[in-house]
Amino acid sequence: MNGVTMRIQKIILRNFRNYQHSSLLLDKTLNIFIGENAQGKTNILEAIHLSSLGRSHRTHDDQDLIHWNQTDSCAEIYFVRGQTEHKLSIHLHRIGKRGVFFNDNPIRSYELIGLLNTVIFSPEDLFLIKGNPSGRRRFIDSEISQANPVYFKELLKYNRILMQRNQLLKKMRERSQANDLLETWDEQFAPVAAAVVVKRIASLKKLTMLANLIHRRITNNKENLTISYDQHEGIFNDNNNSFTIGTVKEWFQKQLIDRRQEDIFKGNTGIGPHRDDIVLSVNGINLRNFGSQGQQRTGILALKLAEIEFIKSETGEYPVLLLDDVLSELDSMRRGQLLGFIKDRIQTFITATDAENFADRKTGKYFMVNNGSVME
């Protein structure tokens, strides 16, 4: 395998989804899971994603991850990072809190971020451009957090402050709380919001460079892809190079004062990173509003491949790539671009309903999945 990449050596699942017990030894480059729908292929990728980010990409309820007739479940991931072997374990329970362990030592769920980096590409991602801003915010936040866990802590802090401020605004609207506490929350809100916005914009600049290089390669140099930050009712964007965390903080402080009565009336905070968006454009044309389906899919493919390179540039190692039944959604050209990009340098997990797309591949391991049973 060329380059530096973290890799998963083994996965053990106990009562996880439809798996009662499964232990898989994995190839360091390519692992392909073949089977009909609803047999458990995606569940394997879900266990990896859960161990990487502390959450499933399909559900917010841990109960959904426990085998229907069991009281608890467990996913264990054995992986190598920086030439050192590690183990991640997540224990889920129908009653009580989950248990998370790194090398058999208990940690909190948020401390998983940055230990095992992954990039997941699923059919739902093909609607990232056309979907709601929340999906695009989640994309950029996940990417930055894996490369920079300090950012993730700032994001958690921001969300806590936002929640407390919104609760206070609702009480003020109902005249059950005095106004004097709002200034205290605003003092905490502005610097954290500024830090999140500035980091997002700086990361998007780097991501744009990487994505445009990949996009030009896919389109034979016919199209230029740009990714810009759209701050809700804001003046700070990635075309403004003069701002700092300090200037953005001052701007937020002023906006919070100017919008105070409106926020009280609505009972929520109308400005901040939670309202912002990301805009993808090709040759200056907004892909969401005016791009063809082919252009949108090419843009998402370039974005996902750039995400891989971004994490590599920030951490020094390629992340593990999870392709959840996405190849069938791509045409032969884009499928070839994707498989050529990852070949022999990024450990990849692929789910598919048939093996015809891999007929000429001689490397990797193939697994047949049938009703929660996996055979190599």
What's the topology here?
Layout (H helix, E strand, L loop, with lengths): L6 E10 L2 E7 L4 E5 L6 H13 L18 E10 L2 E10 L5 E4 L2 E3 L10 E4 L11 H15 L1 H25 L6 H39 L6 E6 L14 H14 L1 H7 L10 E6 L2 E2 H4 L2 H23 L4 E5 L7 H11 L5 E5 L12 E6 L2 E3 L1
Parallel strand pairs: 3-13, 3-14, 8-12, 12-13
Antiparallel strand pairs: 1-2, 1-4, 4-5, 5-6, 6-7, 9-10, 10-11, 14-15
Q: What does it look like?
A:
This protein has helices at about 40-55, 135-145, 150-175, 180-220, 245-260, 260-265, 285-290, 295-315, 330-340, and strands at about 5-15, 20-25, 30-35, 70-80, 85-95, 100, 105, 120, 225-230, 275-280, 285, 320-325, 350, 365-370, 375. With about 375 residues, it is of the alpha/beta class. It has two domains: about 1-115 and about 315-375, Rossmann fold (3-Layer(aba) Sandwich), CATH 3.40.50.300; about 130-315, RecF/RecN/SMC, N-terminal domain (Glutathione S-transferase Yfyf (Class Pi), Chain A, domain 2, Up-down Bundle). The chain is about 40% helix and about 25% strand. The mean pLDDT is about 90. Helix 3 (about 150-175) crosses helix 4 and helix 4 packs across helix 8.
